[in-house]
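Chain A, query sequence.
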Amino acid sequence: MKIIINSSSMVPIYEQLMDQIKAQITAGDLKENDILPSVRTLAKELRISALTVKKAYDNLEQEGFTVTVHGKGTYVAAANPERMLEEQKREVEADMEKAVEKGRRCGLTDAEIREIFELIMED
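Chain A, predicted structure.
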């Protein structure tokens, strides 16, 4: 499992960890019943606190992406198509928000941004 932590990012480390694990699950890189590294192992690899990894794993379990079996480890949960679709929509929405923000920073009007979007949708 490849995780890259950006310590200079404004995004908390546990959220970076969660986002990357979710992305690997939705992309199919991590599949149902794949075991995640132990909290201590991942913390050591990433040189972060075990509490940070634990928080990320707990949140992933709350969101239904993983299942933790006491004494055995944390596993990727069974695929829920609705949850996966919702996560993918959330990612697209975030990317579109970034594009709109960039367009506005460049001085484009909302109408010009819509026009660009329509041109892209035609392809």
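The chain is about 60% helix and 5% strand. The mean pLDDT is 92.
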